[in-house]
Amino acid sequence: EEPKLKYERLSNGVTEILQKDAASCMTVHEKFWLRCLCVYVISLFLLQFLALGTHYGKVYLLDVQGNITQKFDVSPVKINQISLDESGEHMGVCSEDGKVQVFGLYSAEEFHETFDCPIKIVAVHPHFVRSHFKQFVTGGKKLLLYERGWMNRWKPSVLHEGEGNIRNVKWRGHLIAWANNMGVKILDMISKQRITNVPRDDISLRPDMYPCSLCWKDNLTLIIGWGNSVKICSVKERHASEMRDLPNRYVEIVFQFDTEFYISGLAPLCDQLVILSYVKEISEKTEVECCARPRLDIVQPLPESCEEISSDALTVRGFQENECRDYHLEYSEGESLFYIISPRDVVVAKERDQDDHIDWLLEKKKYEEALMAAEISQKTIKKHKILDIGLAYINHLVEKGEYDMAARKCQKILGRNTELWEFEVYKFKEIGQLKAISRYLPRRDPVLKPLIYEMVLHEFLESDYEGFATLIKEWPGDLYNNTIIVQAVVDHLKKDPQNRTLLRTLAELYTYDQRYGRALEIYLTLRHKDVFQLIHKHNLFSSIRDKIVLLMDFDSEKAVDMLLDNEDKISIDRVVEELENRPELQHVYLHKLFKRDHHKGQRYHEKQISLYAEYDRPNLLPFLRDSTHCPLEKALEICQQRSFVEETVYLLSRMGNSRSALKMIMEELQDVDKAIEFAKEQDDGELWEDLILYSIDKPPFITGLLNNIGTHVDPILLIHRIKEGMEIPNLRDSLVKILQDYNLQILLREGCKKILVADSLSLLKKMHRTQMKGVLVDEENICESCLSPILPSDASKSFNVVVFHCRHMFHKECLPVSNTVSPVQFCNICSAKHRGPGSAILEMKK
C-alpha cells in the first residue's frame, strides 16, 4: 500500500551537532506573522523554528532546514526539557544537574535556580509574554509553580508531591497535565483544583526507562501514552447540580486501546493518531532480544481498539543502542510535520502531497491513476506535468502491446498538439500498428498534414478493404488528396473489378469529388441504399424516372417517401404507370399516398380495393371506412368472393342491409359482443329482435345480451324467452347488473318525469285527437306497394285497404303476411325507422 508519510533527515547544522554531541530533547515552535508588502497588501506567513537540547548541556535554535541560528551554553550535563511560550520569545530549560533557567530570547529578562536534585521537566505559561501570566512549572521530586509577584520576585508554590519524580508535563491554556510514578494528573489553573488522576496501567515497567508521553490535541483533549497503552481523555464541564464539593470540571476517557509495542511519543493528525513506538525483536543469529528499528504508525482510534492506517519502520542512526526513553516525537500543527528525535539522528516526517502520490503511482506503473491524479490536482502539483505523465503512459501501453488502448489515450493526452500527433503516428507506423491509431486521429481542430491520412489509407487499402471503406465514410473528404486516393482505388479495381466494397467506396469518393453521375451509376449497379441520399441531396430525380421499380426493390419505404415528397418532379400517374407490372409495389405506394391524403389518389381507389384484398387485408377495412370514392358494390363483391366477413358486414351495413350484416356476424363470426355493438350502432328494434331470436338457445350469447341489453331493450323480453332449466354462465351477476341498470334508469326517469309530465300530457291529448280523426281516401291515393290506385275503378266490387296513421296506404293483399309471434302489422316504409304512434293501422273494408 501507498505510505501516508514521507521522511527525510534534518541535516546542515544538525549533522554537525550530532557528530560531536547527542540529542536529548527538542521542541517545535510555530507562529503566524503578518508582513506588510505595501500600503494595501499584507502577507500572512508561518514562522517555524526548533530548539534542540543535547547531552553536553547545549541548546541550539534551528530553522526548519536544520541551520543553527543561536546557541546557548546552559549546563555541562544533559538538557532534560525545553519549553517555549506561544510567542516564541521566552524559553525554559532544565538540566540533569538541577539547573532551571527561564529567559527571554530577545530581552534581558531571566530567571536562574539550582536545585539539589535533577530537574526532569519545565513548562512556561503559554502566554508568558504577558505581564500577568509570568508563570512556569518545574519538577523533580515535587511539582513547583513559580509566579512573579511584587517587585519582580518569583514565588514558588508546591502543586504536587509524594508520588515519586515528575516525569513529564504539558501546559495548554488553563490546564496543566503532568506524569509521575503513579499516573497522570490534570490541574485547572483557574480554580487551582486537580480535576483527575489517571493511573498507569502497567506498574511493572520502570517509569524512568519507559516514560509517559503526553500530548494536548486541543485545549480540552489530552492524549496519554504509557508503556503500550493509549488513552484519549476529554475535559468536560460538570453540571451545576452535580457540583457539591467537586471540581467544576471532570475528565472522561473517550478512547482506550493497547498497542503492539512500547510508546515513545504521540501526536495528533486530524482525527487520527501518530504513534512513535520502541521495538524489540529476537535476533535470528544470536536468538537474543535486541533493539529493532523504531516504528511510526498512524492509527484510527476506536472506543476500545484502533485501526492501523499505515506503519513505517524508521532507519535512524544508532537504533541498535537506543532505549525507549531515547526517542521523542514532536510535531508542528500548522504544517503536519513530525520530528522523530533520537540521540544520533533527527528525522522529519511529513504528509505526502500529490507530487509524492504521483511519484508512487508511476513507480508502481499505475499510469492511468497517476494521470487522473495529475489532472485533478494540476493547480497544486509542482514536480510533474500532465503531458509528461501521459506520454509515459502511452509508451508503457505500447511496450505492453496494448496498441488500441495506447492509440485511444492519444486523443486525450496529445490534444491539439499536431507535432506530437505526427510523431506518435510515425512511431505506430514503425511498429506496424497504423491501423490501431487510425480510428483516433483528429479530424477537426487540429488537422494533421494530408500525408498522414493518406499514409493510413494506403495501409488499409493494401490489407483491409472494409477498414478502408469505413475510414472513407467517416473521414471528411478534405483531410486527404481525393484524386490520389481515387486513382489508388481504381488501380485495385483493375485487379478485382467486382469487389463491392471497393466499388461502394469509389462511389463515395466520386460523391466527395462532386461527380454525382458516376456515383449514382455505381450505387444503382450495387443496389446500395445510399442512392436515395444521393438522389435527394443532389436533385437527381430526372435520372431515375425509369428506375422506380429498381428503387422500390432496394427499399420500398424510402423510395415511396422520396417519391411522395417530390410529386412535383415525378407525378403520381407516372409512378403508378411504372409500377403497373408490380402490383405489390403499386399497393405500397398507393397505400402511403392514401395515408397522407385521402383524396389525392381517388381515381385509384377502385384499384386499391383489389390491392388491399390481395396484399394487405388488415388495412382493407380502415380503407373502406375512410374512403369516400370507392364503389361499394365492387368492394362488396370482392369481399364476398374472398369471404372477408368483417369487411362484408361493414359494407352491408353501409349499404342499408343491416339485417344481413347482423346475420353474418352471428353465423360467421359467432361473436355476441360484436353483434351487440353492431345492434347498438344501428339502433334498430328489429335487429335486437333478430339478435334475441338467434341467441335464445345459446347460453353464452344470453349472458352477453343480459349484460348489455338493459339500456336498449327491455330485458324482460329476453328473460321470458329463456327456456326453463337452461344453464346460463354468470346468470346471477348478469341479473344483478340488469337490476342495477334498471334502478339507474328508474332514477333518471323519475328525475325527468317531473320536468316532462306537463308536456307529455299535452302532446298525448294532441296525438289522441289527431288519431281519432278520419283519413281521406280517394282516387288520387295509390298503394305504396304496387303503386296502383288504392280504390278500384269499379266501385261495386269489394276491396280491403289498410291505412296507417303515417298516411301510407296499402291493399290488404299487398302487405306481407304477419308472423305468428306478433300479429300486429306495421308500415313497411316506416318499419325501418322507430315504431312510433304513426305506424298503427286503420283497416278499411267494403
TrEMBL record:
Identify the GO cellular component terms for this protein: clathrin-coated vesicle; cytosol; early endosome membrane; Golgi apparatus; HOPS complex; late endosome membrane; lysosomal membrane
For this protein, the parts annotated as crossing the membrane are: 32-52
The membrane topology noted for this protein in its Swiss-Prot or TrEMBL record is:
Peripheral membrane protein
Location comes to: Cytoplasm, Cytosol; Early endosome membrane; Endosome membrane; Late endosome membrane
Against SMART domains, the record matches this protein to: CLH
Q: Which residues form the RING-type domain?
A: 783-831
Question: Keywords assigned by UniProt?
Answer: Autophagy, Cytoplasm, Cytoplasmic vesicle, Endosome, Golgi apparatus, Lysosome, Membrane, Metal-binding, Protein transport, Transmembrane, Transmembrane helix, Transport, Zinc, Zinc-finger
Q: Does the keyword NAD apply?
A: no
Query: CHCR repeat boundaries?
Result: 560-704
Which Gene3D superfamilies does the UniProt entry name for this protein? Tetratricopeptide repeat domain, YVTN repeat-like/Quinoprotein amine dehydrogenase
Q: Which Pfam families match?
A: Beta-prop_Vps41, TPR_Vps41, zf-RING_Vps41
Do you know which InterPro entries this protein is assigned to?
A: Beta-prop_Vps41, Clathrin_H-chain/VPS_repeat, TPR-like_helical_dom_sf, Vps41, Vps41/Vps8, WD40/YVTN_repeat-like_dom_sf, WD40_repeat_dom_sf, Znf_RING
- Please verify whether the record's keywords include Transmembrane helix: yes
What is a single molecular function from GO for this protein? Answer: zinc ion binding
What domain of life does the native source organism fall in? Eukaryota
List GO BP terms, alphabetically: cellular response to starvation; endosomal vesicle fusion; macroautophagy; protein targeting to vacuole
Q: Which family is this sequence assigned to?
A: Belongs to the VPS41 family.
Q: Give the matching PANTHER family.
A: VACUOLAR PROTEIN SORTING VPS41, VACUOLAR PROTEIN SORTING-ASSOCIATED PROTEIN 41 HOMOLOG
Q: What does this protein do?
A: Plays a role in vesicle-mediated protein trafficking to lysosomal compartments including the endocytic membrane transport pathways.
- Which protein, by its recorded name, is this? Vacuolar protein sorting-associated protein 41 homolog
Originating organism: Buteo japonicus
Organism taxonomic ancestry: Eukaryota, Metazoa, Chordata, Craniata, Vertebrata
